[in-house]
Amino acid sequence: MAFASASNGAVRFTEEQEALVLKSWAIMKDDSANIGHRFFLKIFEVAPSARHLFSFLRNSDVPLEKNPNLKKHAMAVFVMTCEAAAQLRKTGRVTVRDTTIKRLGSTHFKNGVSDTHFEVARFALLETIKDGIPASMWSPEMKNAWGEAYEHLVAAIKEGMKPVALL
Amino acid sequence: MAFASASNGAVRFTEEQEALVLKSWAIMKDDSANIGHRFFLKIFEVAPSARHLFSFLRNSDVPLEKNPNLKKHAMAVFVMTCEAAAQLRKTGRVTVRDTTIKRLGSTHFKNGVSDTHFEVARFALLETIKDGIPASMWSPEMKNAWGEAYEHLVAAIKEGMKPVALL
After folding, report:
1. pLDDT tens digits for chain A (167 residues)?
2. Which of A46, A48, A114 is nearest residue B46 as measured by Cβ atoms?
3. For B47, which residue in chain A has the nearest alpha carbon?
4. Partner-chain residue, chosen from A45, A47, A119, that has the shortest CB–CB distance to B48
5. What's the Cα-to-Cα distance from A20 to each of A13, A26, A53, B105, B108, rounded to whole Å?
6. Is residue A117 less than 8 Å (CB to CB) from chain B?
7. Which of A7, A27, A10, A34 is nearest to A95 (CA)?
8. Is A5 helix (H, G, I), strand (E, B) or coil?
9. Is the Cβ pair B116, A117 closer than 8 Å?
10. Cβ-count burial of A22 within 10 angstroms (0-12 exposed, 13-18 middle, 19+ buried)?
11. What backbone torsions phi and psi does residue A13 show, to the nearest 5 degrees?
12. Between 3.30.70.660, 1.10.490.10, 1.20.1730.10, 3.40.50.1240, what CATH number should domain B2-6+30-161 receive?
């Protein structure tokens, strides 16, 4: 599903931002399972209670670090986030697979995900990317490019979280 | 006001934990203004929307880094947090100046501070202390001691956030 920015115009994402995202994603891609896992462990380090938002963690005694469902979920979310960022400029839209953005919106709404949770995930994502690429590649511009791409994804998910107006 | 742990028993805080807190607080104390400021800037780095919880930030155009009210507030909160931690074992209670814990509870309740906000502040506090003491002094035990002291303070504030039952 394609999703335009809140203004309903095309997403603004410069060539330079796209180049930074593509360059760093190319480096991280092959290690998505581990980097995605670290992304989620960072979220839970900052906000331990966020684990209650995930059904497969609520009813599990397995430590977070060893939970296979978390590893699988974390990789899927990380890859989706990075691919949406990588395609942002080309498509001018947040692009994820069909129906996924609707499901994401509804799941996040149902589970009571708050603005602060989205912010914690943003912080965790940027910290994880910083540690996932060579130190010489990290810069304020790189941080900004990923931060903006993430904000576009969140705007799309939040749009999907809005209850449908009843006629 | 003195506040016991949730179990209404004395707070458990070991001699070792107290020693770690006292040792690191002694080093940070003289630089409380700067370290406290960094503590709050870290909170806003992780959760930018948390600035709306503070009346003196909501209506200000001054950048966070330069806001004198934030500097003042941050230092007061940091010193209170560290002093409560330093006195925890000796008193067996979270001890802050008279009426402060009630005011804290009521202010946090009124402004809609959530569990996630308290978690973000915990993460920011631990990161700030890590950077505020010599690297050789930081350890899992040090992190644990400050983390536990902070949890006791938060439990006291949350107790003060509960609406008074009506008879």
Report:
1. 555 544 445 678 999 999 999 999 999 999 999 999 999 999 999 999 999 999 899 888 899 999 999 999 999 999 999 999 999 999 888 888 655 788 888 888 888 899 999 999 999 999 999 999 999 999 999 999 999 999 999 999 998 887 665 54
2. A46
3. A119
4. A119
5. 11, 10, 32, 45, 40
6. yes
7. A10
8. coil
9. yes
10. middle
11. -155, 115
12. 1.10.490.10
Mutation for A interface: B115, B125, B127, most A CBs within 10 A: B115
In the stretch 120-139 of chain B, residues with CB closer than 8 A to chain A read: 120, 123
- Fold observed for domain A2-161: Globin-like (1.10.490)
Confirm whether pTM is higher than 0.80. Answer: yes
Q: Distance from B150 to chain A by nearest Cα, in Å?
A: 14
